[in-house]
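Incident log, structure service

09:12 report received: a user says their structure output differs between two submissions of the same chain.
09:20 pulled the input from the user's history:
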Amino acid sequence: MAHFAEIDSNNVVLRVLVVSNEQEHRGQEYLADDCGLGGTWVQTSYNANFGGTFAGIDYTWDGINFIAPPAAEITKEPEPTE
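09:34 re-ran on a clean worker, output below:
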């Protein structure tokens, strides 16, 4: 399985999705076009084989590596409401 991070116009990660090995070679096109998700997608490595660390929400893509935000800036999940 391959992992791809969607980044916004500031290169900040919005989400990370899994793509089958059959679509890995065209992950950007598969997610943006075939799945209709649009956006910009960058492959990230769970084993850190490339792209530095594994991408997470609020990480920043610098064109080579995903960089973790300072701990105080990590987005927290909203508390469930009743």
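09:41 both user submissions now match this output. Likely a transient worker issue. Closing.
09:42 reviewer note: The first strand starts at residue 2 and ends at 7. Residues 27-34 form the longest helix (8 residues).
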